[in-house]
Design goal:
Largest sheet: 8 strands, antiparallel
Number of helices: 4
Strand content: 25-35%
Oligomer: single chain
Helix content: 10-25%
Number of strands: 15
C-alpha cells in the first residue's frame, strides 16, 4: 500500500516518512491504541493515501515534547489511513458505514478537556450512510439534541449486545424507524450537519452492552470484526 505524507512547512522527516510508509495493519492498530487522537486531524484514503496532520516547520530531528507530539499526530493519521484501506468492505456481516473509502476527521479519544466517543467521517454532504451490521433500530430521531438526526442500532455480535450510533444526518433522510430490522449495508440516511455540528459529517459510535455502555474506538472495533 502506497502512502504520500503531506507535511506543512519544511521539515526533516525522512525517517518518519519511511516509518509510516511500511505500516502493517497490526502496527497501525497498536498506534491507535497507544497514541491519543489529535483534534483537527484529517486523512483521505483512496488508492494512494494522502495523510494530513497538524505539523510545523520545526526540524523533526528535535526531541522537544512539542515536536514529538506532532510526530505522533502524523503517525496516528497514517495508521488511520492504513486501516481505512483495509476495511472498506461492502460484503460480510460487519461492514464499513459507507460505500468505499472516505475522509476521516476527529477520532476516538481525548478532545477539548473531554472525550470524543466516536469517529468522525467526512464523505461530503448527502453521502449515503449504511448500517455496519444486522440489527434492530432502537432510536430514530429527527431532533436528537446535540446529536441531530440520529439512528441507534442494537446488534448481537459474538453473543454480545453491541450498539452502533449514526449522528448529524440530514433532516428528512432517515430510512429506518424504531423497531425496524436492518441488514448489513442497508441505507440509514444521508450525511448532514444537524445538531451540534460545525460542518457536514457523520459521528459514528460503537458502544458495548447498552446504548450508553462502554464506548470503544470504532476503527479498532471495525477492524477486529471485519477481518
Amino acid at each position: 500500500m502506497a502512502f504520500a505524507l503531506a507535511l506543512v512547512g519544511t521539515t526533516s522527516v525522512a525517517a518518519l516518512t519511511t516509518e509510516v510508509a511500511d505500516l502493517s495493519t497490526a502496527e497501525a492498530l497498536e498506534i491507535l491504541k497507544s497514541e491519543p487522537a489529535e483534534h483537527g486531524q484529517t486523512i483521505e484514503a483512496a488508492g494512494d493515501v494522502v495523510v494530513s496532520a497538524p505539523l510545523s516547520a520545526e526540524d523533526y530531528n528535535s526531541t522537544s515534547a512539542k515536536d514529538l507530539a506532532r510526530a505522533s499526530s502524523a503517525r496516528r493519521a497514517a495508521a488511520l489511513a492504513a486501516l481505512v484501506n483495509s476495511m472498506t468492505k461492502t460484503t460480510g456481516p460487519v461492514r464499513w458505514p459507507f460505500i468505499g473509502p472516505v475522509k476521516l476527521s476527529d477520532g476516538f479519544g481525548p478532545r477539548g478537556g473531554g472525550t470524543h466517543n466516536g469517529q468522525d467521517f467526512l464523505p461530503g454532504e448527502g453521502a449515503p450512510v449504511v448500517a455496519t451490521a444486522a440489527g434492530v433500530v432502537v432510536e430514530s430521531e429527527d431532533g436528537g439534541g446535540s446529536a441531530g438526526v440520529t439512528i441507534l442500532i442494537r446488534h448481537e455480535i459474538d453473543g454480545a449486545a453491541v450498539y452502533s450510533r449514526y449522528m448529524h444526518m440530514q433532516y428528512g433522510s432517515r430510512q429506518a424507524e424504531v423497531g425496524a430490522t436492518v441488514s448489513p449495508g442497508q441505507m440509514l440516511g444521508l450525511v448532514g450537519n444537524t445538531g451540534y455540528s460545525t460542518g457536514p459529517h457523520l459521528h459514528f459510535e460503537i458502544r458495548l452492552g447498552g446504548p450508553n455502555g462502554q464506548a470503544v474506538d470504532p476503527m479498532v472495533w471495525l477492524h477486529a470484526h471485519m477481518s
